[in-house]
Design brief:
Number of strands: 6
Strand order of the largest sheet: 4-3-5-2-1-6
Oligomer: single chain
Strand content: 15-25%
Shape: elongated
Order of helices and strands: EEEHEEEHHH
Helix content: 25-40%
Distance between the termini: 15 Å
Radius of gyration: 27 Å
Structural class: alpha/beta
Length: 256
């Protein structure tokens, strides 16, 4: 977001390597300003420095120099906080504040219309959650899908409860006939409910942990997930933390 008290200039572009998009973030420190390091970097890039994601670094090692999508020799590797998903191709390039890369207006590329941004004066590199665009669409679809899943689950639960009540009444009646006291029958009923609920909760928790890595492989918004992004944890963490990417709003750039 543009700031009235900026410390740096940031621009966003997209290049391609063998048809695969490579996100290029150009940054420059404004003279006389104290500039924080962008997420995923341990310091602000010096003019001419190139920082790359692990996947982009591996790609550069495989390609000859004349086919590199981003010129220069990598000075460092971007950390987890700079990336939205594993395998993302991202480069962060440092510039002087008057270089054309951070002063010239940019125009949208129809191939990647949402991944182009003209140089903008910023005060921070920690983004904010999107409330419109594809981010809002994904959130709305997720809410609708949740409702569609919850309704049949409630119907299934009610049907299962009716069946279990009938069988339980038969068992309780048999216990009363053989002389069980009301207190003992109430205790057995409570114990049965507790054990059944505990077994279901344990099975659900184990299934969640086992299937987490499988769910992380499902692609959305351009790539798969980091497993940590899908881990709920205890207690629940906020949906968007400063300096992290929640797939809808990145720390270095806004993602669709």
């Amino acid at each position: 977001m543009e700031s009235s008290h900026p410390v740096a200039v940031e621009a966003l572009g997209t290049t391609f390597s063998q048809g695969v998009p490579v996100t290029v973030v150009d940054v420059a420190r404004l003279p006389g300003r104290t500039t924080p390091a962008p997420p995923g970097l341990d310091r602000f890039p010096a003019p001419g420095e190139l920082w790359v994601s692990p996947a982009l670094g591996a790609l550069l090692d495989r390609l000859p120099d004349d086919r590199h999508p981003v010129p220069g020799t990598p000075a460092g590797t971007l950390g987890r906080a700079a990336l939205a998903y594993p395998g993302e191709l991202v480069a962060v390039v440092g510039h002087r504040s008057m270089d054309p890369a951070v002063t010239t207006e940019r125009y949208a590329d129809p191939r990647r219309a949402d991944d182009i941004a003209s140089p903008t004066h910023v005060a921070t590199f920690t983004g904010a959650p999107l409330t419109d665009g594809m981010g809002g669409t994904y959130a709305s679809v997720a809410r609708l899908a949740t409702i569609l899943v919850v309704v049949p689950l409630l119907v299934l639960g009610a049907s299962a409860a009716r069946l279990s009540v009938s069988r339980r009444d038969q068992r309780l009646a048999a216990l009363r006939l053989i002389g069980a006291t009301p207190g003992r029958i109430a205790g057995l009923t409570a114990a049965e409910a507790v054990l059944t609920g505990a077994a279901g909760a344990l099975l659900g928790a184990v299934g969640y942990g086992v299937l987490l890595s499988v769910a992380a492989r499902l692609p959305i918004a351009g790539g798969a997930w980091y497993t940590a992004d899908l881990w709920i944890g205890a207690p629940l963490r906020p949906q968007c933390e400063p300096g992290r990417d929640d797939r809808l709003a990145g720390p270095l750039r806004v993602r669709p």
